[in-house]
Design a protein that fits this description.
- The chain is 16% helix and 34% strand.
- Strands 2-3-1-5-4 form a five-stranded mixed β-sheet, with helices on one face.
- The longest helix is centred in the middle third of the chain and has 14 residues.
């Protein structure tokens, strides 16, 4: 499944929020340096959707706050954990 993701680095409370169909806001603690925010993004999404971290790939936007993320093996009808907030 493909998501458009807005990443907010250096946030005090990491988490995932749905902004719309296939669009997420992900707050991470890591700063946007040396790929640390991207790695935390992958870990948070894997935990949120209950899949392995290796199944979460950043397709585009490596150096941008807006990214296209692919989650392998996730079906479109799967509901987000905790009703869309975590």
């Amino acid at each position: 499944m493909i998501f458009r993701v807005r990443v907010k680095p250096k946030d005090r409370s990491p988490g995932v929020d749905f902004m719309g169909k296939n669009e997420l806001l992900v707050r991470v603690k890591a700063p946007p340096e040396k790929g640390r925010a991207n790695e935390e993004l992958r870990s948070l999404l894997a935990s949120y959707f209950g899949c392995p971290r290796e199944a979460v790939r950043i397709k585009s936007g490596f150096n941008s706050s807006w990214k296209t993320v692919i989650i392998e093996g996730l079906k479109e009808e799967k509901e987000p954990a905790a009703g869309g907030k975590k």
